[in-house]
């Protein structure tokens, strides 16, 4: 009986997850471009400085090493972000705000559940991960991680590099960047993140004349355009052009991005 329940649960969890569409939440598509004030992400930067480590092609989080004080400070940072009205700021400032909030909340969810092997284990019984769960309240509106990524970031900015900016705490995901996003460094960080990912084996891998791409390019194909447009995008960030496009497969590693 237990085995049957496990199989049913696994089936429903797998079927329950599919790449969400970009679906604008109009309320968030407004800004105050005359406001040059910046939102401070110093506490998030401090966390990144203390707990990120590079290992090979991956930037990993030392979840096990995070002390109680820093866990509390991370939660306080998220609470402060909830008290910010992002609509009072410029679009450039908003982009950094949403990316940092998404990444900080994701790390916080992992820390609350740690030790855990994969973020996909979070969420309800029939859920594949926590992306559909309410995680923050901004301007009195409950938001999920899916809301931030697919109803705010993707539809408002329409920049495929957003997929390199938000981090899902998995080895297959583009690396969590060592710098908090700001309105000043966003362009440089997006280019850095894109270059890292496309140049890595988890982004683009050629094996025996076969091309293996990250599943991101399959799940969110609409953001990268036609196959030719995707290849042009990839070639922007590679030293060697992508070949063998007649035989493409997709792969993604959901293992936790934790440092040993």
TrEMBL record:
InterPro entries: DUF547. Pfam families: DUF547. Keywords: Signal. Residues 89-198 form the DUF547 domain. It comes from the Bacteria. Residues 1-18 form the signal peptide. This is DUF547 domain-containing protein.
């Amino acid at each position: 009986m237990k085995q049957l329940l496990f199989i049913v649960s696994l089936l429903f969890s797998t079927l329950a997850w599919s790449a969400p569409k970009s679906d604008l939440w109009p309320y968030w598509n407004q800004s105050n471009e005359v406001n040059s004030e910046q939102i401070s992400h110093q506490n998030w930067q401090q966390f990144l400085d203390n707990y990120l480590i590079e290992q090979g092609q991956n930037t990993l989080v030392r979840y096990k090493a995070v002390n109680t004080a820093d866990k509390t400070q991370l939660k306080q940072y998220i609470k402060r972000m909830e008290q910010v009205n992002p609509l009072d700021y410029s679009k450039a400032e908003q982009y950094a705000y949403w990316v940092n909030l998404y990444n900080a909340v994701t790390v916080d969810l992992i820390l609350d559940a740690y030790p855990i092997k994969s973020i996909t284990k979070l969420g309800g019984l029939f859920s594949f991960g926590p992306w559909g769960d309410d995680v923050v309240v901004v301007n009195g509106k409950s938001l999920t991680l899916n809301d931030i990524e697919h109803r705010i970031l993707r539809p408002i900015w329409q920049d495929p590099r957003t997929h390199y900016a938000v981090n899902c705490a998995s080895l297959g995901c583009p690396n969590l960047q060592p710098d908090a996003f700001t309105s000043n460094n966003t362009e440089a960080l997006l280019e850095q993140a894109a270059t890292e990912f496309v140049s890595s084996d988890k982004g683009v891998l050629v094996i025996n004349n076969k091309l293996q791409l990250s599943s991101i390019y399959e799940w969110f194909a609409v953001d990268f355009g036609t196959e030719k447009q995707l290849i042009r995008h990839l070639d922007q960030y590679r030293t060697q052009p992508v070949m063998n496009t007649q035989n493409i497969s997709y792969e993604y590693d959901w293992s936790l991005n934790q440092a040993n």
